[in-house]
Amino acid sequence: MRVAICDDDRESCARLRSLIKQQRPDCEVVCFDTGKRFLEAGQHFDILLLDVQMEEMSGIEVARVLRIKQERTILIFVTALKEYAAEAFEVSAFNYLLKPVESERFCKVFEDACREVKRRRNISGEQLFFQTKARSFVVQKNEILYVESCRRQVEIHTLRENITVYATMKSMEEQLGKGFFRCHRGYLVNLAYVAEYGTGTIQLQGGETVYLAREKYAEFDKAYTDYLHNL
């Protein structure tokens, strides 16, 4: 689960991040102090906690840009300004929380948002949504051969093209789920396209080869055998 906090108040960011980590330690949380920096990052997040009053761009303006791009991020406004609630829901806000937010209230809303993320993933089934600076697009999960780590980005190798996006291997593992195996710290492979494997490498249908870490061999062997048995 990837969560962004966009707020120019450092104390507010730190508190929200702490609450999220206490509730969901596995969440990847990234903080931005302006809406412009958030948008320029070009990253996809499952949930965005967004202040309204910020320099350069208001939270409402940021949300409108996301919706124009057809970004399906769940928006939770966390602000001291109650008068923008109507505009927030015009951009399909999931909730509108007023500062100072009670911990119990925030945790309930955030947990509801996490459940909504899972519900949407189940509905979308075999489709994954990604965004780059140039475009937004949907990738069919069953067309992904493997994912390769490239510093702060990942390269998604599909049957038709290779796509580079800002994401972590951990977040890709969570999104892809069953049927994919982290065979090396830099590779995540689709078991459906495995042709053969041995010590150190996995050969995929079509001829491409990815690394198989020595310490992962036994685990991969079992995962692939289980995969074949469940076909």
Describe this structure in words.
- The chain has 7 helices and 15 strands.
- It has helices at 10-23, 35-41, 59-68, 85-90, 103-124, 169-176, 217-229; strands spanning 2-6, 28-32, 47-50, 74-79, 95-98, 127-131, 136-140, 144-150, 153-158, 162-166, 180-184, 187-190, 194-198, 201-204, 209-211.
- Strands 2-1-3-4-5 form a 5-stranded parallel β-sheet. It has a 5-stranded antiparallel β-sheet with strand order 10-9-8-12-11. The chain has a 3-stranded antiparallel β-sheet with strand order 13-14-15, with no helix packed on it.
- The longest helix has 22 residues, at 103-124.
- The model has no long low-confidence stretch (mean pLDDT 90).
In short:
The protein is α/β, with parallel strands linked by helices and 231 residues long. The chain is built from 7 helices and 15 strands.
Number of helices: 7
Mean pLDDT: 90
Q: How would you sum up the major sheet?
A: 5 strands, parallel
The SSE string, one letter per element, is EHEHEHEHEHEEEEEHEEEEEH
Distance between the termini: 28 Å
Oligomer: single chain
SS strand fraction: 25-35%
Helix coverage percent of residues? 25-40%
Shape: elongated
The assigned structural class equals alpha/beta
Radius of gyration: 20 Å
Number-wise, the strands total 15
- Low-confidence parts, pLDDT < 50 over ≥5 residues? none
